[in-house]
Protein backbone atom coordinates (compact mmCIF):
# COMPACT_ATOMS: atom_id res chain seq x y z
CA UNK A 1 0.00 0.00 0.00
CA UNK A 2 2.70 2.49 0.99
CA UNK A 3 4.63 1.83 -2.22
CA UNK A 4 1.62 2.79 -4.33
CA UNK A 5 0.68 5.82 -2.23
CA UNK A 6 4.17 7.28 -2.47
CA UNK A 7 5.09 6.27 -6.01
CA UNK A 8 6.75 9.20 -7.74
CA UNK A 9 6.50 10.40 -11.31
CA UNK A 10 9.91 11.01 -12.83
CA UNK A 11 10.67 14.50 -14.05
CA UNK A 12 11.47 13.13 -17.50
CA UNK A 13 8.05 11.49 -17.68
CA UNK A 14 6.27 14.68 -16.63
CA UNK A 15 8.03 16.59 -19.41
CA UNK A 16 7.29 13.82 -21.92
CA UNK A 17 3.55 14.01 -21.10
CA UNK A 18 3.48 17.65 -22.16
CA UNK A 19 4.30 16.58 -25.73
CA UNK A 20 1.18 14.45 -26.21
CA UNK A 21 -0.76 16.26 -29.00
CA UNK A 22 -4.20 16.15 -27.41
CA UNK A 23 -2.88 17.19 -23.99
CA UNK A 24 -0.22 19.73 -25.05
CA UNK A 25 -0.57 23.41 -24.14
CA UNK A 26 0.67 26.16 -26.44
CA UNK A 27 4.03 27.72 -25.46
CA UNK A 28 3.66 31.47 -25.91
CA UNK A 29 4.85 33.24 -22.74
CA UNK A 30 8.09 35.20 -22.24
CA UNK A 31 9.91 36.41 -19.11
CA UNK A 32 8.12 39.76 -19.42
CA UNK A 33 4.74 38.01 -19.65
CA UNK A 34 5.50 36.04 -16.49
CA UNK A 35 6.62 39.13 -14.58
CA UNK A 36 3.48 40.96 -15.69
CA UNK A 37 1.39 37.99 -14.59
CA UNK A 38 3.12 38.04 -11.22
CA UNK A 39 2.68 41.78 -10.71
CA UNK A 40 -0.84 41.54 -12.07
CA UNK A 41 -1.96 39.03 -9.49
CA UNK A 42 0.13 40.19 -6.51
CA UNK A 43 -0.87 43.87 -6.71
CA UNK A 44 -4.55 43.88 -6.04
CA UNK A 45 -6.17 42.18 -3.11
CA UNK A 46 -3.63 43.18 -0.48
CA UNK A 47 -3.71 46.86 -1.38
CA UNK A 48 -7.24 47.33 -2.63
CA UNK A 49 -9.18 45.00 -0.32
CA UNK A 50 -7.33 43.57 2.71
CA UNK A 51 -5.32 46.63 3.80
CA UNK A 52 -8.31 48.20 5.52
CA UNK A 53 -9.36 44.93 7.15
CA UNK A 54 -6.07 44.13 8.87
CA UNK A 55 -5.30 47.76 9.78
CA UNK A 56 -8.68 48.28 11.37
CA UNK A 57 -9.04 44.93 13.06
CA UNK A 58 -5.52 44.02 14.06
CA UNK A 59 -2.29 45.84 13.16
CA UNK A 60 -3.12 49.54 12.70
CA UNK A 61 -0.31 51.52 10.99
CA UNK A 62 1.98 48.55 11.66
CA UNK A 63 0.27 46.87 8.70
CA UNK A 64 3.41 47.92 6.80
CA UNK A 65 5.45 45.63 9.07
CA UNK A 66 2.93 42.86 8.48
CA UNK A 67 3.55 43.18 4.73
CA UNK A 68 7.30 42.98 5.35
CA UNK A 69 6.91 39.84 7.47
CA UNK A 70 4.67 38.21 4.88
CA UNK A 71 7.03 39.27 2.09
CA UNK A 72 10.02 37.65 3.82
CA UNK A 73 8.11 34.40 4.26
CA UNK A 74 7.12 34.50 0.60
CA UNK A 75 10.68 35.23 -0.52
CA UNK A 76 11.88 32.05 1.18
CA UNK A 77 9.17 30.05 -0.56
CA UNK A 78 9.79 31.83 -3.88
CA UNK A 79 13.40 30.63 -3.95
CA UNK A 80 12.15 27.05 -3.64
CA UNK A 81 9.47 27.57 -6.30
CA UNK A 82 12.04 29.05 -8.67
CA UNK A 83 14.21 25.92 -8.51
CA UNK A 84 11.27 23.58 -9.08
CA UNK A 85 9.68 25.65 -11.85
CA UNK A 86 12.94 25.77 -13.82
CA UNK A 87 13.65 22.07 -13.25
CA UNK A 88 10.12 20.71 -13.84
CA UNK A 89 8.54 23.14 -16.38
CA UNK A 90 5.13 21.45 -16.31
CA UNK A 91 1.65 22.80 -15.53
CA UNK A 92 0.46 22.18 -11.99
CA UNK A 93 2.93 24.11 -9.81
CA UNK A 94 3.26 22.55 -6.34
CA UNK A 95 1.18 19.54 -7.39
CA UNK A 96 3.61 18.58 -10.16
CA UNK A 97 6.62 19.32 -7.96
CA UNK A 98 5.24 17.07 -5.22
CA UNK A 99 4.54 14.24 -7.66
CA UNK A 100 8.20 14.29 -8.73
CA UNK A 101 9.61 14.40 -5.20
CA UNK A 102 7.23 13.21 -2.47
CA UNK A 103 4.88 10.80 -4.24
CA UNK A 104 1.34 10.42 -5.52
CA UNK A 105 -0.64 10.82 -2.29
CA UNK A 106 1.20 14.00 -1.19
CA UNK A 107 0.82 15.30 -4.75
CA UNK A 108 -2.90 14.62 -4.67
CA UNK A 109 -3.24 16.34 -1.30
CA UNK A 110 -1.45 19.46 -2.48
CA UNK A 111 -3.33 19.46 -5.79
CA UNK A 112 -6.64 19.21 -3.95
CA UNK A 113 -5.46 22.02 -1.70
CA UNK A 114 -4.52 24.22 -4.67
CA UNK A 115 -7.91 23.70 -6.28
CA UNK A 116 -9.47 25.13 -3.12
CA UNK A 117 -6.87 27.90 -2.79
CA UNK A 118 -7.27 29.26 -6.31
CA UNK A 119 -11.04 28.81 -6.40
CA UNK A 120 -11.59 30.76 -3.20
CA UNK A 121 -8.92 33.27 -4.17
CA UNK A 122 -10.76 34.01 -7.40
CA UNK A 123 -14.03 34.39 -5.50
CA UNK A 124 -12.46 36.72 -2.91
CA UNK A 125 -11.08 39.01 -5.58
CA UNK A 126 -14.33 38.98 -7.55
CA UNK A 127 -16.21 40.09 -4.42
CA UNK A 128 -13.63 42.84 -3.81
CA UNK A 129 -13.94 43.96 -7.44
CA UNK A 130 -17.69 44.15 -7.03
CA UNK A 131 -17.24 46.38 -3.97
CA UNK A 132 -15.15 48.88 -5.94
CA UNK A 133 -17.58 48.90 -8.86
CA UNK A 134 -20.39 49.69 -6.44
CA UNK A 135 -18.25 52.48 -4.95
CA UNK A 136 -17.94 53.96 -8.45
CA UNK A 137 -21.70 53.63 -8.94
CA UNK A 138 -22.30 55.43 -5.65
CA UNK A 139 -20.08 58.30 -6.82
CA UNK A 140 -22.23 58.56 -9.95
CA UNK A 141 -25.45 58.52 -7.90
CA UNK A 142 -26.47 54.97 -8.84
CA UNK A 143 -27.50 52.53 -6.16
CA UNK A 144 -27.17 48.78 -6.59
CA UNK A 145 -30.16 46.86 -5.22
CA UNK A 146 -29.21 45.21 -1.91
CA UNK A 147 -30.27 41.79 -3.19
CA UNK A 148 -27.84 42.05 -6.15
CA UNK A 149 -24.85 43.74 -4.52
CA UNK A 150 -22.03 42.96 -2.12
CA UNK A 151 -23.27 41.45 1.10
CA UNK A 152 -20.33 42.31 3.39
CA UNK A 153 -21.81 43.67 6.61
CA UNK A 154 -25.35 43.50 5.23
CA UNK A 155 -28.29 41.66 6.76
CA UNK A 156 -29.93 41.26 3.35
CA UNK A 157 -29.55 37.86 1.71
CA UNK A 158 -28.68 38.27 -1.93
CA UNK A 159 -26.55 37.27 -4.89
CA UNK A 160 -23.57 39.42 -5.90
CA UNK A 161 -24.33 39.53 -9.62
CA UNK A 162 -21.32 41.73 -10.46
CA UNK A 163 -18.82 39.30 -8.92
CA UNK A 164 -20.40 36.33 -10.68
CA UNK A 165 -20.50 38.13 -14.04
CA UNK A 166 -16.80 39.04 -13.82
CA UNK A 167 -15.79 35.41 -13.29
CA UNK A 168 -17.86 34.25 -16.26
CA UNK A 169 -16.38 36.89 -18.62
CA UNK A 170 -12.83 36.03 -17.59
CA UNK A 171 -13.59 32.34 -18.08
CA UNK A 172 -14.39 33.09 -21.71
CA UNK A 173 -11.14 35.04 -22.17
CA UNK A 174 -9.06 32.17 -20.75
CA UNK A 175 -10.72 29.70 -23.09
CA UNK A 176 -9.67 31.85 -26.08
CA UNK A 177 -5.95 31.56 -25.34
CA UNK A 178 -2.99 32.46 -23.14
CA UNK A 179 -1.51 35.11 -25.43
CA UNK A 180 -4.77 37.05 -25.44
CA UNK A 181 -4.84 36.77 -21.65
CA UNK A 182 -1.24 38.05 -21.48
CA UNK A 183 -2.00 41.07 -23.68
CA UNK A 184 -5.05 42.03 -21.65
CA UNK A 185 -3.06 41.56 -18.45
CA UNK A 186 -0.22 43.80 -19.66
CA UNK A 187 -2.62 46.64 -20.42
CA UNK A 188 -4.46 46.32 -17.15
CA UNK A 189 -1.28 46.01 -15.07
CA UNK A 190 -0.01 49.29 -16.54
CA UNK A 191 -3.22 50.98 -15.37
CA UNK A 192 -3.03 49.34 -11.98
CA UNK A 193 0.59 50.27 -11.27
CA UNK A 194 -0.20 53.86 -12.31
CA UNK A 195 -3.01 53.93 -9.76
CA UNK A 196 -0.74 52.55 -7.04
CA UNK A 197 1.87 55.22 -7.75
CA UNK A 198 -0.81 57.92 -7.66
CA UNK A 199 -1.92 56.64 -4.24
CA UNK A 200 1.64 56.79 -2.94
CA UNK A 201 2.49 60.23 -4.35
CA UNK A 202 -0.82 62.02 -3.83
CA UNK A 203 -1.50 60.36 -0.49
CA UNK A 204 1.93 61.34 0.85
CA UNK A 205 0.79 65.00 0.85
CA UNK A 206 -2.28 64.11 2.94
CA UNK A 207 -0.53 62.25 5.75
CA UNK A 208 -1.19 63.45 9.30
CA UNK A 209 1.36 62.42 11.89
CA UNK A 210 -1.24 61.89 14.61
CA UNK A 211 -2.78 59.06 12.61
CA UNK A 212 0.32 56.97 13.33
CA UNK A 213 -0.31 57.22 17.07
CA UNK A 214 -0.17 54.49 18.19
CA UNK A 215 1.88 52.89 15.40
CA UNK A 216 1.46 49.43 16.97
CA UNK A 217 -1.99 49.40 18.65
CA UNK A 218 -2.20 47.51 21.92
CA UNK A 219 -5.94 46.96 21.81
CA UNK A 220 -8.87 47.08 19.41
CA UNK A 221 -10.80 50.36 19.31
CA UNK A 222 -14.35 50.16 20.60
CA UNK A 223 -16.74 50.62 17.69
CA UNK A 224 -20.32 51.71 18.16
CA UNK A 225 -22.26 48.78 19.55
CA UNK A 226 -19.22 46.50 19.76
CA UNK A 227 -17.70 45.19 22.93
CA UNK A 228 -14.05 44.27 23.34
CA UNK A 229 -15.27 40.96 24.73
CA UNK A 230 -17.63 40.33 21.82
CA UNK A 231 -17.50 36.65 20.79
CA UNK A 232 -18.79 37.75 17.37
CA UNK A 233 -15.59 39.73 16.75
CA UNK A 234 -13.47 36.76 17.73
CA UNK A 235 -15.54 34.42 15.57
CA UNK A 236 -15.33 36.68 12.51
CA UNK A 237 -11.68 37.59 12.69
CA UNK A 238 -10.28 34.59 14.52
CA UNK A 239 -8.28 36.43 17.17
CA UNK A 240 -8.99 38.03 20.53
CA UNK A 241 -8.76 41.84 20.64
CA UNK A 242 -5.95 41.55 23.22
CA UNK A 243 -3.81 40.04 20.46
CA UNK A 244 -3.01 43.50 19.13
CA UNK A 245 0.51 44.76 19.64
CA UNK A 246 3.52 42.85 18.31
CA UNK A 247 1.59 39.58 18.07
CA UNK A 248 -1.05 41.44 16.12
CA UNK A 249 1.52 42.17 13.41
CA UNK A 250 2.11 38.46 12.87
CA UNK A 251 -1.61 37.78 12.90
CA UNK A 252 -2.06 40.49 10.28
CA UNK A 253 0.83 39.03 8.27
CA UNK A 254 -0.98 35.69 8.12
CA UNK A 255 -3.98 37.50 6.60
CA UNK A 256 -2.24 39.85 4.16
CA UNK A 257 -0.11 36.89 3.12
CA UNK A 258 -2.98 36.17 0.73
CA UNK A 259 -1.80 39.17 -1.29
CA UNK A 260 1.53 37.54 -2.17
CA UNK A 261 0.38 34.33 -3.82
CA UNK A 262 1.09 35.68 -7.30
CA UNK A 263 4.40 33.90 -7.79
CA UNK A 264 2.65 30.63 -6.92
CA UNK A 265 0.32 31.23 -9.87
CA UNK A 266 3.25 32.13 -12.12
CA UNK A 267 4.64 28.65 -11.52
CA UNK A 268 1.45 27.07 -12.92
CA UNK A 269 2.23 28.63 -16.32
CA UNK A 270 5.63 26.92 -16.66
CA UNK A 271 4.40 24.59 -19.39
CA UNK A 272 3.22 27.53 -21.50
CA UNK A 273 6.54 29.40 -21.27
CA UNK A 274 8.92 29.41 -24.23
CA UNK A 275 12.11 29.24 -22.13
CA UNK A 276 11.01 28.18 -18.63
CA UNK A 277 14.49 27.30 -17.35
CA UNK A 278 15.58 30.92 -17.74
CA UNK A 279 12.33 32.86 -17.46
CA UNK A 280 10.47 31.19 -14.56
CA UNK A 281 12.94 32.30 -11.84
CA UNK A 282 12.95 35.83 -13.28
CA UNK A 283 9.17 36.06 -13.31
CA UNK A 284 8.73 34.60 -9.82
CA UNK A 285 11.41 36.54 -7.96
CA UNK A 286 11.13 39.79 -9.92
CA UNK A 287 7.40 40.22 -9.44
CA UNK A 288 7.63 39.46 -5.71
CA UNK A 289 10.37 42.05 -5.17
CA UNK A 290 8.55 44.82 -7.02
CA UNK A 291 5.24 44.24 -5.28
CA UNK A 292 6.57 44.01 -1.73
CA UNK A 293 8.05 47.50 -2.00
CA UNK A 294 4.78 48.92 -3.36
CA UNK A 295 2.70 47.20 -0.66
CA UNK A 296 4.76 48.66 2.17
CA UNK A 297 4.63 52.17 0.69
CA UNK A 298 0.86 52.10 0.15
CA UNK A 299 0.06 50.76 3.62
CA UNK A 300 2.17 53.50 5.23
CA UNK A 301 0.39 56.18 3.19
CA UNK A 302 -3.18 55.00 3.70
CA UNK A 303 -2.85 54.61 7.48
CA UNK A 304 -1.29 58.08 7.59
CA UNK A 305 -4.17 59.60 5.64
CA UNK A 306 -6.91 58.22 7.87
CA UNK A 307 -6.79 56.76 11.36
CA UNK A 308 -6.76 52.97 11.16
CA UNK A 309 -9.89 52.67 13.31
CA UNK A 310 -11.91 54.55 10.66
CA UNK A 311 -10.64 52.74 7.54
CA UNK A 312 -13.30 50.95 5.53
CA UNK A 313 -13.13 47.23 4.79
CA UNK A 314 -14.61 47.09 1.29
CA UNK A 315 -12.68 49.97 -0.39
CA UNK A 316 -10.10 51.39 2.06
CA UNK A 317 -8.01 53.45 -0.36
CA UNK A 318 -10.87 55.13 -2.17
CA UNK A 319 -12.75 55.85 1.04
CA UNK A 320 -9.59 57.27 2.69
CA UNK A 321 -9.34 59.87 -0.07
CA UNK A 322 -13.04 60.63 0.31
CA UNK A 323 -12.54 61.19 4.03
CA UNK A 324 -9.75 63.70 3.36
CA UNK A 325 -11.95 65.69 0.99
CA UNK A 326 -10.60 64.43 -2.33
CA UNK A 327 -13.46 62.56 -4.01
CA UNK A 328 -11.83 62.85 -7.45
CA UNK A 329 -8.92 60.71 -6.30
CA UNK A 330 -11.40 58.32 -4.74
CA UNK A 331 -13.14 57.85 -8.07
CA UNK A 332 -9.82 57.41 -9.87
CA UNK A 333 -8.67 54.78 -7.36
CA UNK A 334 -11.96 52.93 -7.51
CA UNK A 335 -11.66 52.81 -11.28
CA UNK A 336 -8.05 51.61 -11.15
CA UNK A 337 -8.81 49.07 -8.46
CA UNK A 338 -11.80 47.71 -10.33
CA UNK A 339 -9.76 47.39 -13.53
CA UNK A 340 -6.74 46.00 -11.68
CA UNK A 341 -8.61 43.37 -9.73
CA UNK A 342 -9.80 41.84 -12.99
CA UNK A 343 -6.27 40.61 -13.69
CA UNK A 344 -5.92 39.17 -10.20
CA UNK A 345 -9.15 37.28 -10.69
CA UNK A 346 -8.16 36.07 -14.16
CA UNK A 347 -4.69 34.85 -13.19
CA UNK A 348 -5.97 33.02 -10.11
CA UNK A 349 -8.57 31.34 -12.30
CA UNK A 350 -5.82 30.51 -14.77
CA UNK A 351 -3.75 28.88 -12.03
CA UNK A 352 -6.62 26.78 -10.81
CA UNK A 353 -7.53 25.44 -14.23
CA UNK A 354 -3.89 24.46 -14.90
CA UNK A 355 -3.65 22.50 -11.65
CA UNK A 356 -6.96 20.77 -12.41
CA UNK A 357 -5.74 20.06 -15.95
CA UNK A 358 -2.45 18.54 -14.71
CA UNK A 359 -4.24 16.29 -12.21
CA UNK A 360 -6.62 15.17 -14.93
CA UNK A 361 -3.78 14.40 -17.35
CA UNK A 362 -2.24 12.16 -14.69
CA UNK A 363 -5.55 10.31 -14.25
CA UNK A 364 -6.18 11.45 -10.68
CA UNK A 365 -9.24 13.31 -11.98
CA UNK A 366 -11.31 12.23 -15.02
CA UNK A 367 -9.18 12.36 -18.19
CA UNK A 368 -12.10 14.05 -19.94
CA UNK A 369 -10.83 17.34 -18.51
CA UNK A 370 -7.27 17.00 -19.86
CA UNK A 371 -8.10 17.38 -23.57
CA UNK A 372 -7.20 20.79 -24.93
CA UNK A 373 -9.24 22.82 -27.38
CA UNK A 374 -8.24 21.85 -30.96
CA UNK A 375 -7.93 25.50 -32.04
CA UNK A 376 -7.01 27.54 -28.97
CA UNK A 377 -4.86 24.83 -27.31
CA UNK A 378 -6.29 25.69 -23.89
CA UNK A 379 -7.85 23.35 -21.28
CA UNK A 380 -11.34 24.62 -22.08
CA UNK A 381 -13.32 21.94 -20.27
CA UNK A 382 -11.98 22.49 -16.73
CA UNK A 383 -11.91 26.24 -17.38
CA UNK A 384 -15.63 26.35 -18.15
CA UNK A 385 -16.58 23.98 -15.31
CA UNK A 386 -14.56 25.80 -12.67
CA UNK A 387 -15.56 29.21 -13.95
CA UNK A 388 -19.24 28.44 -13.45
CA UNK A 389 -18.68 26.95 -9.98
CA UNK A 390 -16.57 29.91 -8.83
CA UNK A 391 -19.09 32.41 -10.22
CA UNK A 392 -21.76 30.84 -8.02
CA UNK A 393 -19.40 30.81 -5.04
CA UNK A 394 -18.49 34.48 -5.52
CA UNK A 395 -22.16 35.39 -5.77
CA UNK A 396 -23.17 33.87 -2.46
CA UNK A 397 -20.15 33.93 -0.11
CA UNK A 398 -19.05 36.98 1.94
CA UNK A 399 -15.43 38.15 1.79
CA UNK A 400 -14.55 37.48 5.43
CA UNK A 401 -15.55 33.83 5.05
CA UNK A 402 -13.12 33.27 2.19
CA UNK A 403 -9.83 35.10 2.71
CA UNK A 404 -8.38 33.16 5.65
CA UNK A 405 -9.14 29.79 4.04
CA UNK A 406 -7.18 30.83 0.95
CA UNK A 407 -4.19 31.68 3.13
CA UNK A 408 -3.96 28.31 4.84
CA UNK A 409 -4.06 26.57 1.47
CA UNK A 410 -1.24 28.72 0.14
CA UNK A 411 0.93 28.25 3.22
CA UNK A 412 0.41 24.49 3.11
CA UNK A 413 1.59 24.48 -0.51
CA UNK A 414 4.70 26.44 0.48
CA UNK A 415 5.56 23.89 3.16
CA UNK A 416 5.24 21.00 0.71
CA UNK A 417 7.34 22.69 -2.00
CA UNK A 418 10.15 23.52 0.43
CA UNK A 419 10.25 19.92 1.64
CA UNK A 420 10.13 18.74 -1.97
CA UNK A 421 13.30 20.71 -2.79
CA UNK A 422 15.16 18.88 -0.03
CA UNK A 423 13.86 15.49 -1.11
CA UNK A 424 14.56 15.95 -4.83
CA UNK A 425 18.08 17.23 -4.11
CA UNK A 426 18.68 13.91 -2.36
CA UNK A 427 16.86 11.51 -4.70
CA UNK A 428 17.74 13.18 -8.02
CA UNK A 429 21.06 15.02 -7.64
CA UNK A 430 21.70 14.34 -11.34
CA UNK A 431 18.92 16.64 -12.57
CA UNK A 432 19.92 19.80 -14.40
CA UNK A 433 18.76 22.77 -12.35
CA UNK A 434 18.81 26.06 -14.26
CA UNK A 435 18.16 27.83 -10.94
CA UNK A 436 19.31 26.43 -7.61
CA UNK A 437 17.86 27.54 -4.29
CA UNK A 438 20.79 29.01 -2.32
CA UNK A 439 21.89 27.80 1.10
CA UNK A 440 20.13 24.44 1.02
CA UNK A 441 18.97 23.10 3.46
CA UNK A 442 18.81 26.40 5.41
CA UNK A 443 16.45 28.29 3.06
CA UNK A 444 13.90 25.44 2.66
CA UNK A 445 13.88 24.80 6.42
CA UNK A 446 13.35 28.52 7.15
CA UNK A 447 10.57 28.56 4.56
CA UNK A 448 8.83 25.65 6.29
CA UNK A 449 9.16 27.30 9.70
CA UNK A 450 7.91 30.70 8.47
CA UNK A 451 4.91 29.17 6.72
CA UNK A 452 4.00 27.02 9.73
CA UNK A 453 4.26 30.06 12.00
CA UNK A 454 1.84 32.02 9.83
CA UNK A 455 -0.51 29.01 9.69
CA UNK A 456 -0.57 28.84 13.48
CA UNK A 457 -1.76 32.46 13.59
CA UNK A 458 -4.81 31.74 11.41
CA UNK A 459 -8.27 31.39 12.99
CA UNK A 460 -9.31 28.04 14.47
CA UNK A 461 -12.40 28.04 12.23
CA UNK A 462 -10.10 28.18 9.22
CA UNK A 463 -8.31 25.03 10.36
CA UNK A 464 -11.62 23.23 10.81
CA UNK A 465 -12.82 24.14 7.31
CA UNK A 466 -9.44 23.23 5.86
CA UNK A 467 -9.57 19.85 7.63
CA UNK A 468 -13.02 19.15 6.19
CA UNK A 469 -11.81 19.93 2.66
CA UNK A 470 -8.74 17.70 3.12
CA UNK A 471 -10.90 14.85 4.44
CA UNK A 472 -13.08 15.12 1.34
CA UNK A 473 -9.90 15.02 -0.77
CA UNK A 474 -8.71 11.78 0.83
CA UNK A 475 -12.11 10.26 0.13
CA UNK A 476 -11.99 11.23 -3.56
CA UNK A 477 -8.45 9.92 -3.92
CA UNK A 478 -9.11 6.48 -2.42
CA UNK A 479 -12.43 6.08 -4.25
CA UNK A 480 -11.19 7.28 -7.65
CA UNK A 481 -7.70 8.71 -8.01
CA UNK A 482 -5.60 5.82 -6.67
CA UNK A 483 -7.03 3.27 -9.10
CA UNK A 484 -7.36 5.58 -12.13
CA UNK A 485 -3.87 7.07 -11.87
CA UNK A 486 -1.80 6.61 -15.03
CA UNK A 487 1.00 5.25 -12.87
CA UNK A 488 -1.40 2.69 -11.39
CA UNK A 489 -2.43 1.61 -14.89
CA UNK A 490 1.18 1.38 -16.05
CA UNK A 491 0.70 3.99 -18.81
CA UNK A 492 4.04 5.68 -18.17
CA UNK A 493 6.65 5.01 -20.80
CA UNK A 494 9.46 4.68 -18.26
CA UNK A 495 9.68 2.79 -14.96
CA UNK A 496 8.91 4.95 -11.95
CA UNK A 497 11.02 5.33 -8.86
CA UNK A 498 9.50 4.95 -5.41
CA UNK A 499 10.61 6.76 -2.29
Task: Give your account of this protein's structure.
- By secondary structure, this protein is mostly helical.
- It contains 19 helices and no strands.
- The chain has helices at residues 2-5, 11-17, 31-42, 45-59, 63-87, 94-101, 104-139, 161-176, 178-204, 231-237, 246-256, 262-268, 276-305, 316-323, 327-361, 380-396, 403-427, 442-456, 460-484.
- The longest helix has 36 residues, at 104-139.
- The two termini are 13 Å apart.
Weakly predicted, low-confidence segments: 221-242, 493-499
Mind summarizing the main beta sheet?
none
Structural class: mainly alpha
* Rg estimate, integer Å: 22 Å
Report the strand count: 0
Kindly estimate the percentage of residues that lie in beta strands according to DSSP: under 5%
Summarize the structure.
The protein is mainly α and 499 residues long.
Offer a few descriptive terms.
66% helix, single chain, disordered C terminus, 19 helices, 499 residues, mainly alpha
